[in-house]
Specification:
Blueprint (H helix, E strand, L loop, with lengths): L1 H23 L18 H5 L5 E2 L10 E3 L4 E5 L2 E7 L5 E5 L5 E9 L4 E3 L1
């Protein structure tokens, strides 16, 4: 009877360790909430973004964004900032003309449309 209790205690201890290890490795899906790069955009897709004037579909006109290939971000003719891809992924680090930092997580980039959040 005592031998059985020792084995049961060992088994319970091992099971507890295994279950706690599995739980700590579980994907909680939190990365999508932090605007982290998914790396899903290719260099050829990113190239479609550069040296074009992008207008917002919800705006009444004016330059919305212009991502120049020299990493200049133009928000209007007189307001320029800088941009840089983070870890060659699909997330861009933006430094606006007032030295504020933002991150754009690009959803898609096509010849005539692009979207980010």
């Amino acid at each position: 009877n005592i031998h059985y209790m020792k084995n049961a205690t060992r088994i319970l201890f091992v099971l507890t360790l295994l279950l706690s290890g599995l739980y700590s490795c579980k994907d909680d899906g939190a990365s999508s909430d932090k605007n982290e790069s998914t790396g899903k955009l290719s260099d050829s897709q990113k190239a479609k973004l550069y040296d074009k004037v992008w207008f917002s579909t919800s705006s009444s006109g004016g330059i919305e964004h212009e991502f120049l290939s020299d990493q200049t971000l133009r928000l209007s003719l007189s307001l320029e900032g800088r941009w840089n891809w983070i870890n060659k992924g699909d997330t861009m680090d933006i430094l606006d003309p007032n030295n504020n930092r933002y991150r754009y997580l690009f959803i898609s980039i096509n010849d005539n449309t692009m979207s980010f959040k």
